[in-house]
């Protein structure tokens, strides 16, 4: 994964050089992403794309994979899934035009800096449009921060219909951003992030897509080894249909029902962490 991210970083920062760079990403990197959409487990996604040091690049790849997963779960044909995954890979391309002092800041942005950052969606649309990319992909760059209740940005697009692809990318983008460690804050736990995603499905995010994402992510997580909020290690055994966000976790032959107490899933463990736990 690290080599994929390094290659993407090089190409991403040169994307304004011309259409040949986006074509290269589509021809060389997208097939790798597509394979991960089809094969990667939730622990692979949650662990391999985590790093506070090169967040922008890992984030774009994670959003690409997660949005491809969601598109598959929503029943889109394979060709469309690939297009949505490619949209996810390029959704933040406008950030290449944001001053590095803002983009690489190790503290929270000021309100003024945040207003500048918000221009990345329009910048992204303009870059991709100028290269003649499909309008569906361009609109994802423009609309992935718009919300169902008419909030979000760009402000001049508030209240207008949001492209279906952008709704998918918004969910993947939100989930990965919430669970990612940043220099200035620790990412939310898997459990807390899913609860927040469910809360945002009431007005902010498309409810059908968000609930499908939550249900399928929890199904993917069955069998994964996790650390609970009380420090114990366990394996996800079962996710109740009526409440998939609170799975049953097997800990030393005991079943712990998460969500019924202060115990929740805090972290997915890598193989080396399992061995050294």
UniProtKB/TrEMBL annotation:
Matches recorded under Pfam families: HD_5
Family annotation (PROSITE patterns): HD_GYP
Annotated ranges, domain HD-GYP: 34-229
Top-level taxon of the source organism: Bacteria
NCBIfam families: HDIG
Protein name, UniProt field: HD-GYP domain-containing protein
Organism, scientific name: Halalkalibacter akibai (strain ATCC 43226 / DSM 21942 / CIP 109018 / JCM 9157 / 1139)
């Amino acid at each position: 994964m690290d080599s994929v991210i390094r290659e993407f970083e090089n190409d991403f920062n040169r994307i304004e050089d011309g259409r040949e760079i986006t074509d290269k990403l589509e021809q060389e990197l997208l097939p790798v992403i597509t394979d991960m959409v089809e094969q990667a487990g939730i622990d692979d996604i949650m662990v391999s794309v985590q790093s506070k040091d090169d967040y922008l690049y890992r984030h774009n790849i994670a959003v690409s994979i997660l949005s491809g997963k969601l598109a598959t779960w929503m029943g889109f044909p394979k060709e469309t899934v690939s297009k949505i995954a490619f949209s996810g890979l390029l959704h933040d391309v406008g950030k290449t035009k944001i001053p590095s002092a803002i983009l690489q800041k190790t503290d929270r942005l000021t309100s003024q800096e945040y207003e500048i950052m918000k221009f990345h969606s329009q910048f992204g649309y303009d870059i991709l449009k100028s290269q003649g990319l499909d309008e569906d992909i361009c609109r994802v760059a423009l609309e992935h921060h718009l919300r169902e209740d008419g909030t979000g940005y760009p402000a001049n697009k508030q209240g207008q219909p949001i492209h279906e692809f952008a709704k998918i990318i918004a969910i993947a983008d939100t989930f990965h951003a919430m669970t990612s460690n940043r220099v200035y804050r620790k990412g939310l736990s898997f459990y807390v992030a899913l609860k927040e995603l469910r809360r945002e499905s009431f007005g902010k995010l498309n409810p059908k897509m968000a609930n499908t994402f939550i249900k399928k992510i929890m199904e993917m997580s069955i069998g994964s080894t996790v650390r609970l909020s009380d420090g114990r290690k366990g394996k996800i055994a079962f996710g109740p249909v009526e409440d998939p966000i609170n799975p049953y976790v097997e800990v030393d032959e005991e079943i712990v029902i998460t969500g019924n107490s202060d115990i929740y899933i805090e972290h997915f463990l890598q193989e080396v962490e399992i061995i050294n736990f």
